[in-house]
Amino acid sequence: MRQYLGLLLTALSILILLPYTQAAQFTIVAVGLYLVGALLIIWPTRPSRQQPAQRVEPKPTAITPEEIKRRQERPPQIE
Fold it and tell me: Region labeled Disordered — which residues (predicted)?
């Protein structure tokens, strides 16, 4: 809804202010560009079909004897 109100106010301000500028002969071009921009904003876009992200599971690695010793040396952490 805010988009439409913003577009309406912008169009109104352009139409009010353009006759007071020296570039009044370009009114048709300015209004045409505004309408193209407004159509691009208002035109509904279709959401793209996105595949859900695939979960990457870590591969289990072989535990070496050194890792087993290191794990046993550390005391359990109490939280």
Answer: 48-79
- pTM confidence score: 0.35
Rg of the Cα atoms in the chain = 32
Token output for 16 = 């009010």
Owning domain of residue 10: 2-42
Task: Specify if 73 maps to a domain.
Answer: no
Quote the strand ranges of the chain, DSSP E.
none
Distance from the Cα of residue 40 to its chain's centroid: 16
* pLDDT confidence tier of residue 75, bands split at 50, 70 and 90: low
Looking up tokens 């599971």 gives 57
Is residue 74 one of the residues assigned to a domain?
A: no
In contact, 15 and 24? CB cutoff 8 Å? no
